[in-house]
Amino acid sequence: MKESEIIIVSKDRAEKGHYVKPILMGLGYTLSNFFRKPVTVQYPDEKTQRSARWRGLHRMNVDEKGELKCVACGLCAAICPSHAISVVPYEEEGKTRYPEEFIVDELRCVFCGFCQEACPVAAISLTGVYDYVDYSRENFIFDIAKLKDPEQFQFKG
Amino acid sequence: MIDFFIIPVIKLLLIFGVCLFLIAYTTWVERKALGHFQLRYGPMRVGYHGLLQPIADGIKNFFKEDVIPENADKPVFILAPIISISFAIMLLGVIPFGGPIIIFGKEINLYLANPSIGILFILGFATMGSYGTILGGWSSGNKYGYMGGLRASAMIISYELSMAFAVISIIMVSGSFSLVDMVAAQDGIWNIVRQPVAFFVFFISGIAELNRIPFDMPEAESELCCGYNVEYSSMKFALFFIAEYTHMFVFAFLVTTLFLGGWHGPFLPGIVWFFTKSFIVIFICIWIRATIPRLRYDKVMKLEWKFLLPVAIANIIATGAVMALLG
Questions:
Q1: Global pTM?
Q2: C-alpha B228: how far from its chain's center?
Q3: Which of A121, B158, B187, B313 could form a disulfide with B304 if both were Cys (CB 3.0 to 4.6 A apart)?
């Protein structure tokens, strides 16, 4: 509230009739509010802009060929303070490593962002999706398929 | 047959149907307007801009569980909302909504009844309606309800006085107890011009009688956690609420009839003028509610006994003196 918007009722409460003018001022103030646009954001229909650095649901990034960038080094699983990430690597002779299984338990995660800091190939990053809701705990255990497109879990009302 | 039965029944159905519809939608108007006064939207989800909200509320109230507390006085507990709503709705019968109109060559008066003591009928039955509040508070076996009932009785004892005194000066000016004659007496000049002090006193004590913020002593949410209706649920609670809004409507009609020239007005038909003026009064009620916080209990009593009542009595004396001087 701005200093100019504070209506002082009476410095000395014993003074008689001093509430009439402040009441009229208050009536004027509320009436001017009546013709102003409400400040409400109609949440599921319209949303406020998230910051680019917002730490929401995880995303597994893919390269230009559509393959996972992840090399299953396990650094993210190692640095995770809440043990929310588990990686099972797979490696064929002479080819790149890739994760056979990459699971993020979104209910264990504290969204600290250490995993995206630790990743040497920028394979995991946190998105702006902050309002995923579901009915069962199992649905919060994200596998690779879910992690590829976390935007689908944005709450739509 | 037509004059004594069919026309009154049609008028009855029309007046109560239209008025109860308007009352239901006043809850919507109030929530919307209060929201916009506080830079919010109010109800938005049910229908376009919440237009179906009153219907949703009604359905919800019908299907809620009806709880009667164990240590409540059961017959009185059930009777209280019935008293509240029936006496409130009865008031609509004597309000003149417009001048006489002619349909199929027949002159029809736009009121249900025109008793020669119309204003006394309204004052009396409005007070009877408050018995519902008092009994509801006292019979629910809850200390907050009990306090609410006590406060409700204190409010009607005090504010009924200044309201009646304000009305007396109007009776003196128009020379009749009948509401229709009172409106007819305001053809040229409205009573708000002739009796501004009476209007002021009537408006303030009327809001107090309605138990609306800033005078909502019996149901002060922050002090008594809803006061007299704290134990009521389901349709009984809804009946209390409809009664409250009916009282607000009757108050708006009464201010229009007594002070704002009733159905008189240029160009438009009388009934349109009547409802426009009434809605302006209702809007002012909501506006005051959105602005002024609740007064402390002793300040409310002080305002009545030390300010409004002396002012109303002085106004009567002054009116009488002026009328005696002018012959």
A1: 0.80
A2: 18
A3: B158
Q: Which of B30, B39, B287 to mutate to test the interface with A (most CBs of A within 10 A)?
A: B39
Is-contact A142 A56, C-beta < 8 A?
no
Contact check, Cβ <8 Å, A30/B35:
no
What domains appear along chain A, each with residue ranges and CATH number? 3-34 (no CATH), 58-153 (3.30.70.3270)
Hey, where are the domains in chain B?
A: 68-326
Which residues, 6 or more positions from B63, have their beta carbon under 8 angstroms from its beta carbon? none
Q: Which pLDDT value is given to residue A65? A: 85
- pLDDT reading at A14 higher than 60: no
Residue-wise pLDDT for A51-108, tens only, equals 888 888 888 888 888 888 888 888 988 999 999 999 888 888 877 788 888 898 989 9
Task: Flag whether the ipTM exceeds 0.85.
Answer: no
In A, which residues are within 8 Å of B292 by CB distance? 23, 26
Whether the CB-CB separation of B118 and B272 falls below 8 Å is answered with no
Say if residue B205's pLDDT is above 80. yes
Dihedral of alpha carbons B140, B143, B149, B153, sign: positive
Label residues B293-303 b or e (16+ Cβ within 10 Å = b).
ebbeeeebbeb
B182, B190 contact by CB (below 8 A)? no
CB contact under 8 A, B38 and A33: yes
Among residues A19, A32, A48, A47, which one has the least CA distance to residue B38? A32
Q: Report CA A56 to chain centroid distance, whole Å.
A: 4
Residue A86 backbone dihedrals phi, psi, to 5 degrees: -135, 135
